[in-house]
Design a protein that fits this description.
The complex is a heterodimer of chains A (338) and B (343).
Chain A lengths: L2 H35 L5 H11 L7 H11 L5 H15 L4 E2 L4 E2 H36 L4 H15 L2 H15 L10 H4 L5 H38 L2 H8 L4 H7 L1 H10 L2 H19 L4 H10 L3 H29 L1 H4 L2
Helix pairs in contact in A: 1-15, 5-6, 5-9, 5-13, 5-15, 6-9, 7-9, 7-13, 9-12, 9-13, 12-15, 13-14, 13-15, 14-15
Chain B lengths: L3 E14 L2 E14 L3 E5 L6 H7 L8 E15 L2 E6 L8 H6 L4 E4 L13 H12 L4 H14 L5 H4 L9 H13 L5 E5 L7 H18 L2 E6 L2 H7 L2 E6 L2 E7 H6 L4 H8 L48 E3 L5 E3 L1 H14 L1
Helix pairs in contact in B: 3-4, 3-6, 4-6, 6-7
Classes of the chains: A mainly alpha (338), B alpha/beta (343).
Chain lengths: 338, 343
Amino acid sequence: MDLEREVEDMWKFLFRRTLAMLFTVWVVSIISFAVIQLPPGDYVTTLMSQMVSQGGRELTPEYAEQLRELYGLNESMYVQYGKWITNIIFKGQFGYSFVYKRDAVELITERMPMTFALSMSSFVLVWVIALPIGIYSAVRKYSIGDYIFTFLGFIGLAVPSFLLALILLFVSQKYLGQAMIGLFSQEFADAAWSWDKFVDMLKHLWIPTILIGLGGTAGLIRTMRANLLDELNKPYVETARAKGLSETRLLLKYPVRHALNPFVSTIGWTLPNLVAGEVIVAIVLNLPTSGPVLYRALQSQDMFVAAGFILLLSILTVIGTFISDLLLAVLDPRIRLR
Amino acid sequence: MSDTLIEVNDLKIHFFTDEGVVRAVDGVDLTIERGKTLCLVGESGCGKSVACRAFLQIVHSIGKIVSGEIIYHRRVDNNFEETIDIAQLNPKGRQIREIRGKEISMIFQEPMTSLSPMYTVGNQIMENILLHTNLSKEEARQLCVQLLDQVGIPQPHRLVDEYPFRLSGGMRQRAMIAMALSCNPTLLIADEPTTALDVTTQANILDLMRNIQKEYQMALLFITHDLGVVAEIADTVAVMYLGKIVESGDVDTIFNNPKHPYTQALLRSIPKISRTREKLDTIQGMVPNPYRRPGGCPFHPRCTQAMPECSTMVPSVTRFSDGHTTRCLLYENITTKQFAELS
């Protein structure tokens, strides 16, 4: 079969997947907007109850009505969604944050890169650790090393990341005299970006990276081990061995390549998992990522911020799935050629 | 300079499983002559596949070669020969890896799964060539196309870049044969290469194997349970039952004058086309549980001519004329009786 046809097939595949992706994002945008509106009341009710609980003056219904008018909360959901989505698409505006009294875009662009950096570094860490350990555990099945990694893996799976974060805070406070909180040292926290600030960030980044990646690593080790065990006794491995290939070359070219297949398809669900794990760890460690902001926005019905974040995270997830599909097609001719 | 290529002496391969030890190969003797075809015949589970994997040291990791030797007479050039005991080689070592795929190559039973779907047919054949020769990639590719043509694959220029899952079973087996031939092996081991194919394809593949064997002047160890195939291609035959060779000899002797009751029963169980309809003879009983092999002669529980001593005495090899041997007490008694009469 010729290369041209294969390239053409690949473009068709890409086109189909991109269309499906756009459709998914559209549906997700509707759902995320609707979900934000589901709880009774809106930001104004939250504001009113806050003022009452703080012992302040009660808002007059007229003033509340004025606020609703101002924020556009009076209109029907369809109209609100229409305004929201057209502003995003055509002006890149995500609305206004009631809580922070700022443009939601600013909040998001401020927090999103950090979230992304953290998720990506955790993701890379998960793969770099899980892949070789998984291969080792499968090839040396029931060896002492396999048992040790299995034991550690299950501990990693079972211990919630926020608990580890708390333990880490305690230990660092008690023995290092400084709590490992945040992503920057105090002198850099509000400074403009510079090389020193970047280095400082890297120094702090490894702690949340490990905390967030831990659970996923344990899971992926098990996945890789199970996948590879399935492949190790397949006839094509015997064929390769009968050719006289060395065990390492054979292992990497044949069974590992086959076992990567289901492994790669886990990318799709690994990304949202990392982001979800990030919320709790970020709150505990007080990280400048999207997690704490999203959490607060959901609590106080700061709807434009919440919807904006959820939309962006969903897009990330869809992109993750798309990447994994793409990698699968590159890896496995059976998928590429149907 | 002998014509013997491989001599197997008292080879024992045991599998150490959680349930116990399986003596898959339990004292096998075989001789493979240069350029000749040896058919190894036996029921499923008799150990024939395990035995032939030992020739390449690719027995599954829970199986160990416990004792015995596999003497390989390697012809270095036209007037010098060295002998290697393959049974002593490290399965992961360099020496056995140089023999695999180059001097001794193998074709497997399942053409559908023996090639990886991830790489093209050409890639997997060229891998063997590049591993064992100094050819460049381009030369290897040309050789590959030539080999595919030789094994009867149409449009080899196109199919060399095709993935295995787009080929039929017969085509894949042809590709496997091309791969096995790629370095001019002195011995080709074929482990039931036609079992998974339909009947017409079987006949084609057999024809192909017969032709290439003549052309390449290589020895062929053909493993099968199909006696029809044996009659067509074998020079010599070894009949295996529960890890032991119970009878061996040249193909005419085995078919016309079988000695061992098991061989006789096997030959009786071939369907014949005759005017009168007869019930097909079968061998009574089942293959015994591998963990509880019968004592004495392993075949005695199913043997129609079993004698009381068969359950306790292990028969040794009885030699008849021209390399015809069997392991059965029936003949041992005759010879000992004769021996007693003589003395």
